[in-house]
Amino acid sequence: MKQDSGYKTRQKEKLLDYLVRNKEKHTNVQEISAFLTAEGTPVGTATIYRQLDRLVECGVVRRYNFDGKTGACYQYIEDDNDCHEHFHLKCTLCGKLIHLSCDRLSDINQHIFERHGFQIDPSQTVFYGTCSECSAE
Questions:
Q1: 66-85: buried (b, 16+ CB within 10 Å) or exposed (e) per residue?
Q2: Cβ atoms of residues 48 and 12 within 8 Å
Q3: Whole-model pTM?
Q4: Is the pLDDT of residue 1 over 60?
Q5: Are residues 57 and 107 in the same domain?
Q6: Does 65 share its domain with 117?
């Protein structure tokens, strides 16, 4: 990973640590900022965005822009990460983003390609609705 002398090493380490520990989900700048503040290393959002942009450029983090209304989400990626292979569910009440690997949706993806000549990008495909926690409330 490239070193950035303008960004404190402790902050960078904490940011990357947060992303690695949360690699199973998408996170946003507000969540990262709250974590860093709670850890005693508050960082401005502009600095977090800059650092995330560098991590995206290095291929360490993937950026997702789903709808034009909400900010981008970020996810730490490993060599074997196949996030581009599955769809996403987004709760319109709490904002939770869920990775969805489902054979039926893969079948639909294949059907649309074979019958309609259209290749869907699952990493950019989001189904909106209500998650199980919000439905239970």
A1: beeeeeebbbbbeeeeebee
A2: no
A3: 0.60
A4: no
A5: no
A6: no
* Same domain, yes or no: 131 and 108: yes
Q: How many helices (H) and strands (E) does the chain have?
A: 5, 5
CA 86 vs. chain centroid, Å, equals 13
Minimum mean pLDDT among 18-22, 36-40, 45-49, 63-67: which range?
63-67
What six digits make up the tokens of 8? Answer: 């404190």
Asked if 64 and 39 sit in the same domain, the reply is yes
Chain segment 57-113, per-residue pLDDT in tens = 888 888 887 666 667 888 888 654 455 567 888 888 887 778 787 888 888 889 999
Angle at 68 between CA 66 and CA 74, to 5 degrees: 45
Q: Does residue 74 sit in helix, strand or coil? A: strand
Q: What 3 state SS string does 16-35 have? A: HHHHHHCCCCCECHHHHHHH
